[in-house]
Design goal:
alpha+beta, Rossmann fold, 30% helix, binds adenosine-5'-triphosphate, binds magnesium ion
Length: 355
């Protein structure tokens, strides 16, 4: 017996809600910074539903494992950031891949690679994509002396996002400060510190959607304290929490916008990002761009870059989410052979038994 369901797909939603995070003793105050607000999860769900699909809320990787044998979805929209370690963003994609369940976004390799900024930079260097010079330090006593990169430098945790570990103290202008900050990052985030040449000037971010070919959306410029020429200003985690300021389109010459877009697309391809992503760059006062990193799970909050770009393009938030979902669906031939009325599998057919 087959029951009739509304036209559309069953779309699982995998996520980590900020509200689920239980702070442990010793956690930094920004420990749950990457997780999504309930509002964001809700608007993504509403956007998918508005397209005629049915959303099945899954939750985090543990919930996914618990639900695996009765999960009846055509595809999973994955924004789960995961818990602990540099492979945390890979957890949901790898489980889904293992089970043969289609999903939106980059695979486990790209998620792990790009969360680790040092690994990403090695790929960028191999591809000839400019990125700030850097040193990785796991033990502050091994800090090279005399200091190699000169000053100022910025000290970041090696594999964090959402500007975790970035405070007003992150830029060092002398060796004593560098040692102190490096030691703090290593001890607080239990991982090596990435020390980078600090790039003053302007900052940009480029949202990208799709595959074969991916499409770069209009360049977004970062504004801090009302300034586009940021000088020494940069995004700390506190600034992110107090609200971001973006300008779109960026107030820059067409030639610079083209160069930034080209680098963003090269970066997306170099790390084999899929469906959607966001590339962050800084441009120094000489007009030279540097790629800082790529986010394969960029925020889809209505306060963030994708919404800013949607406004510039004159499309709705829902339309933006559907572009991402459609890009993923296009990668799976069997999803495109869907019929208007979808058969519901018998209750006894567990997902794990599907071939
Ligand atoms: N080398 C650098 N020179 C100047 N500013 C930098 C540099 N590296 C990082 N920053 C500043 O710190 C911010 C966060 O750094 P980065 O993008 O590398 O980390 P993240 O935590 O992964 O970012 P996101 O908040 O986008 O997830 C940047 O947006 C920028 O403002
Ligand atoms: Mg960034």
């Amino acid at each position: 017996m087959f029951a009739e369901e509304p036209m559309g797909r069953r779309v699982g939603l995998a996520y980590n809600a900020k509200s689920e995070y239980v702070f442990q003793p010793g956690d930094p105050q920004d420990a749950n910074a990457e997780f999504d607000h309930d509002d964001t999860i809700g608007v993504i769900e509403d956007a998918i539903t508005a397209g005629g699909h049915t959303v099945v809320r899954i939750g985090n990787a543990t919930a996914l494992l618990e639900k695996l044998d009765r999960l009846d979805v055509d595809i999973v929209f994955n924004i789960a950031e995961g818990y602990t370690g540099r492979n945390r963003e890979s957890q949901v994609p790898i489980i889904l891949e293992m089970m043969g369940i289609p999903y939106v976004g980059s695979d486990g390799l790209t998620q792990g690679l790009t969360l680790d900024k040092v690994m990403t930079k090695k790929i960028l260097i191999a591809e000839g994509i400019p990125t700030p010079r850097f040193v990785e330090v796991s033990d502050v006593s091994a800090l090279p002396a005399p200091w190699l990169l000169g000053f100022p430098v910025i000290v970041k945790p090696r594999h964090e996002g959402s500007s975790k570990g970035l405070t007003e103290e992150s830029v060092a202008r002398d060796e004593a400060h560098l040692r102190r900050q490096t030691d703090w990052v290593i001890r607080t985030y239990h991982q090596p510190a990435l020390i980078e040449e600090f790039i003053p000037g302007q900052e940009f971010t480029v949202a990208i959607i799709g595959n074969n070919p991916p499409q770069a959306l209009p360049v977004v410029q970062i504004e801090i304290e009302g300034r586009l020429d940021l000088g020494d200003r940069f995004y700390t985690n506190a600034r992110i929490r107090s609200g971001l300021e973006y300008r779109c389109p960026a107030r820059i010459p067409e030639s610079l916008a083209r160069r930034i877009t080209e680098l963003a697309l090269r970066t997306y391809r170099a790390v084999e990002c899929r469906d959607f992503g966001r590339v962050d760059l800084r441009v120094n006062p000489a007009g030279e761009p540097f790629v800082l990193e790529l986010n394969p799970l960029p925020s889809l909050s209505t306060e963030d870059v994708f919404m800013v770009v949607a406004k510039e393009l004159g499309i709705t938030y829902e339309a933006m989410i559907h572009r991402v979902l459609d890009a993923a669906c296009a990668r799976y031939p069997r999803l495109n052979q869907e019929v208007a009325v979808r058969p519901t599998p018998p209750a006894s057919l567990s997902f794990a038994k599907r071939s």
